[in-house]
Amino acid sequence: MLKHELRKKYKNLRAGISPTKASDLSLALANSSLQIPIWDFFYYHIFLSIEDKNEVDTLPLITLLQGKDKNIVIPKVVGSNSLENYLLTDTTAFKKSAWGVPEPVEGIEVPENKIDVVFVPLLAFDEAGNRVGYGKGFYDGFLGKCPKETRKIGLSFFAAEPEPITDVHANDVKLDYCITPEKVYAF
């Protein structure tokens, strides 16, 4: 399937999930993350959810990371399609961006070469580990700057799309894993 078709399909599917169900599914995703061999690393990049888009709530996963005393890195959009990454601390202040994304106002910047694990937002993914985001290229650009060893983990309420994504580009970065409420996919 084409990315634009998948974006439309999965935006509609996500819109049909109630807030209570989304909360339950997000907690299940956080618990499922414990199955992946990623817990010996230090820097974990994680997106903050956009409430209006009914994204996976990453707060349970952030709480899990904090409980394991991990360094949590939060993105901030800069320029037309770049991300800067800031260490989450007790004093981190947030402001919503034009897209409704909570972003750190300022803080300790963490370079891409230090990031060990990235939890990647997505709308859909296929069984080969290709993902469909919102189409702006923020994460593909960011992941391209990370070390090749960085673990890339998608978070999705839905199973892998059975049909392959047919319009994958050379700069699209594949996932290593994707966590759903029912299954952890390894690619």
UniProtKB/TrEMBL annotation:
It comes from the Bacteria. Keywords: ATP-binding, Ligase, Magnesium, Metal-binding, Nucleotide-binding. This is 5-formyltetrahydrofolate cyclo-ligase. Its EC number is 6.3.3.2. One of its GO terms (biological process) is tetrahydrofolate interconversion. PANTHER family: 5-FORMYLTETRAHYDROFOLATE CYCLO-LIGASE (PTHR23407:SF1), ATPASE INHIBITOR/5-FORMYLTETRAHYDROFOLATE CYCLO-LIGASE (PTHR23407). GO terms for molecular function: 5-formyltetrahydrofolate cyclo-ligase activity; ATP binding; metal ion binding. Pfam families: 5-FTHF_cyc-lig (PF01812). It comes from Flagellimonas oceani. It catalyses: (6S)-5-formyl-5,6,7,8-tetrahydrofolate + ATP = (6R)-5,10-methenyltetrahydrofolate + ADP + phosphate. Signal peptide: none annotated.
